[in-house]
Amino acid sequence: MTKAMRMMEQHLSLVDGVVFVLDARCPAASFNQKLKKLANNKPVLYVLNKGDLADERADFLIKLIKEKGAAAVKINAVNSSSRRDITGAIESLVAEKRARALEKGQTKVFRFMVAGVPNTGKSTLINLLAGSKRAETGDKAGVTRGKQWIRCEGFELLDTPGTMPPAFDNQYLATHLAYVGSVNDDILDMDDIALALLGELAQKYPKRLEERYGVDGGTPLEMLETVCKRRGFVLRGGEYDYERAERAVIDDFRKGKLGRITLDTAEDVKGLAF
């Protein structure tokens, strides 16, 4: 991550603005203050991607970000209909510069750095704008390894590796990153992640758990056992297959099978300097 941050700092002088991609389900958790400081005085656009997986609360969070004086837009980068929204938002960052260039008879190609924590959809966003698969994508953290310049209509984008804060000072927000797959699953205790996710969903979206798994209260472990019974995750001898149930809950959440969910709250966003 230190290497990625250094590379971004070296190339910042080459761009006219920065596009920070956040996860609409957890925009506060996916906001990296170090990236914001790195942008310095460059114009910034916050793109809340995966809007199709977030509930209506994400719209209110966008409003809060805008009230802080930042530009923000919610999209779904896998849906071509979002292309116009994001193109217009990016162009607005340099509208005055473009107008001044045109007055001088200059046709300038503006460049933007695309940054964010892993698995927020940076490369998918770039492919949407480029109109073809130009950047490597994946459903796990750490797919983009180096920088890539991608030519789009009227501007160029610099794809960068996902960067994480060097330390998670706020463990509550850090778990949200684990839920959405921004932290490599291989370094996580998935038992703890699944149980924590069930506990948080029971507080914020209890109806979703009841509809999907028949869960109606109880401790996170009791909820997981209900998932085992509902899904038939039972080993020989009648023991519950907790591992399969944990993976099912996490996958269902990440793929939107539990419905549209936004984990972060207004208080989470208010406390950050966008």
Topology of this protein?
Elements: H1 2-11, E1 17-23, H2 33-39, E2 44-49, H3 57-67, E3 71-74, H4 83-93, H5 95-103, E4 110-115, H6 122-130, E5 148-152, E6 155-159, H7 171-180, H8 190-204, H9 206-213, H10 220-231, H11 242-254, H12 266-270
Parallel strand pairs: 1-2, 1-4, 2-3, 4-6
Antiparallel strand pairs: 5-6
Helix pairs in contact: 7-8, 8-9, 8-10, 8-11, 10-11
How would you characterize this protein structure?
With 274 residues, this protein is an alpha/beta fold. It is built from twelve helices and six strands. The protein has helices at 2-11, 33-39, 57-67, 83-93, 95-103, 122-130, 171-180, 190-204, 206-213, 220-231, 242-254, 266-270; strands spanning 17-23, 44-49, 71-74, 110-115, 148-152, 155-159. A six-stranded mixed β-sheet has the order 3-2-1-4-6-5, sandwiched between helices. Helix 2 links the parallel strand 1 and strand 2 (44-49). The protein is elongated. It starts with a helix and ends with a helix.
